[in-house]
Amino acid sequence: MQTLRLVEAGHPEIVLIGTHLGQYGRDLPDGPDLVQVIEKLCRIPDLGRIRLSSIEPCEVPESLIDLVAGHPKVCRHLHIPLQSGCDSVLKRMARPYDAAFYAELVRRTHLVDPGICLGADVIVGFPGETQEEFATTLKMLQALPLSYLHVFTYSVRPGTPAAEMPDQVDYETKRARNHVLRDLSEAKRASFARSMIGADLETVLERPAKHEPGVLDGLTDNYLRVYTEGSADLLHTLRTVVATAATDGYLRGSLATEAGEV
To answer: Most buried residue, 10, 45, 125, 195, by CB count within 10 Å?
Structure first.
């Protein structure tokens, strides 16, 4: 098993990736689904933690939300692509969900555990996107308890249906909309980071901090970067960091006194 080899090699975090990750096992008559696979992997004794890559909105069952919120070896992080918060744009994109479905999923997950980091992909400037449609997306994103956004600017790909659609959005308009959503993403990440002050966060200490001798740069289970004082022998280990401050979406913290390697 590849995961077992990675664990034996000392990797403190394993990331499960794949196209339509949430559909894993649906083509196997008696095979495990994604939740069952994660539960099995979590039984590996020396496994530090598991993180999920992007997962489509229609592929997030309640059992997965409960696992992300409640299992100590599963990172509290879900990246759920949205693409647009306007139903007319989603329809042109041929997305199999509407804005209300997505919003309910995000709000429900946040209620289970506000410490879960929730990210979204958003595309600006899809063909035909009017200012009113963009405003609808912006309003939705402002209202949702998302932790960050990955903002993409639509570009023409020859041979796709979208490339032949009328009312292609001009570059300057797309660029302006991109900046608006990127600013919103920074604000949401900063707000999420501030909400974690005082929390004990399981953190992989990944690398020395740039320009700060004796400080380590780590990634928390809920996808925040945190800086803490520590020696080089702690690198690539999983430790508990107590968050003490937040600036621009980044945390400062101190190592918990009883933290240990996994």
So the answer is: 125
